[in-house]
Specification:
Elements: H1 16-42, H2 52-60, H3 63-93, H4 98-128, H5 136-173, H6 179-192, H7 199-224
Helix pairs in contact: 1-3, 1-7, 2-5, 3-4, 3-7, 4-5, 5-6, 5-7, 6-7
Length: 225
Amino acid sequence: MTAPTTAQPHSAGDTPRRTLWPGVAGIASGVFMLVALLVIYANSPDTEGDDGLRDTLAFYSKDSNLDVTEGMALMLLVAALLFLWFLGALARLAGNRSHLVLAGGTVFTALLMIATLAGSIYAISANNTDSFRVGPETAMVALLLLDMAYAGFVAAMAAAAVLLFTIWRVSLTTGAVPSWLGWVSFVIAVLCLAGPITAWATVLLMAAWTVLAGVLLVMRGATAA
């Protein structure tokens, strides 16, 4: 009987370049995500109250808010691209479960980018298009786009749960991932199942998790060297 393929903590293919630089990319991706999301959370209109439309209009009427929204959107898009670089090296640790890591991570990245664009396109248009005016007649569009952006984050974290559950299983079955990272992955994945209730927090946790996983790859690369 042929034994199933499993990932070993230190395989012959783990050259420093294959793990070190993707690990650096993961750290950068997580840091960019954390910074951008925290700034967005601290600098966003309150859309849930009775004055949501008025607050949204007041928010987008300030040029400084438009600049911040556009800048943080760019940072999130860069973070998403760096995550894809990091994802390839992470998937190699999963052995015969690598397809689950790649699928979950790729869908997470795509939905993160869609959510970012949905949440920022109003500000980008107002900031760069002379014919687009911020006013009561367009503020409702901004509200709808912000709701769409949050829905995108909910969907992105559902996809991330696939990746995280897989990393947890890998930590239990092959030892290619430390058990502490596996259990952190499990906790975040379970929280992702709460969908709209926890998406605002789990996307932050996912960013922090990416930093931790990136550090793991950097340490693996240093050891391989």
